[in-house]
Write a structure and sequence with these properties.
- The structure is a single chain.
- Helix content is 25%, strand content 29%.
- The protein is an alpha/beta fold.
- The chain has 2 domains: 1-30; 32-95, no CATH class.
- The strands form 3 sheets. It has a 3-stranded parallel sheet, with no helix packed on it. The chain has a 3-stranded parallel sheet with strand order 2-5-8, with no helix packed on it. A two-stranded parallel sheet has the order 4-7.
- The model has no long low-confidence stretch (mean pLDDT 74).
């Protein structure tokens, strides 16, 4: 194999490895958290983040979590209630790691 052929093969391999690496990196980019700015029910796994202070308008629970594997980031905001009920309520059967509130 000539020197030019060897260089072309090496360059081709480098390009293949670089494109596979770039594709793998793109596939691992985490999605941004789902914004929460009002009382709601979270019924899908994922990351959620308060984007504003949320006033509980007398509901029994402002944010209900009915799914496993939910991360709720309070992001420095508050849940302001009426003095009864729950700010965040989870179903008894839900298995989850600690929430960041």
């Amino acid at each position: 194999m000539s020197t030019n052929s060897t260089k072309a093969v090496v360059l081709g391999l480098i390009l293949v490895v670089a494109s596979v690496g770039a594709t793998a990196m793109i596939g691992t980019v985490a999605a941004a958290p789902t914004p929460v700015n009002a009382c709601t029910t979270i019924d899908s796994p994922g990351e959620y983040q308060l984007t504003a202070d949320v006033a509980n308008s007398g509901q029994n629970a402002c944010i209900r979590v009915t799914s496993d594997d939910v991360m709720l980031d309070g992001n420095g905001h508050t849940l302001d209630g009426t003095g009864s009920g729950a700010g965040v309520q989870t179903a008894q059967q839900v298995e989850s790691s600690p929430s960041k509130i």
